[in-house]
Request: fold
Amino acid sequence: MEQLRLELDALLAYEAEGAPLRSHISQHDTAENPAAFLFQVDRRQKAQHCLSKLNINGIVSKESKVILKECVSFYKDLYQEQVVDESAFDPLFDGLPTLDPLARYRARATYRLRKRRGFATYE
Reply:
């Protein structure tokens, strides 16, 4: 009997968790005005994913123009072509296995053949 009462309490608690959402949805009759409900949900999600303030060199800015300018500048710098010191690669590649000349030739020939056929990937 006690086990049955515990299961019933758990079921009622589960139903109660979903009650606010069901109440909110029932206020918006989807047959009459689904767009208003969906626009409201969309506005709420956009507000949650909006950058409302940004720390720029220790100064917190809330102005959208300043935030936009800083974001554009950041991504321009991030994707700008930069000179790379190729001598820094040597220590990284030392000791890696290499192909002998015949295996390298075969691999390139296979790649060119696959590329001509429309499959430019190695297996």
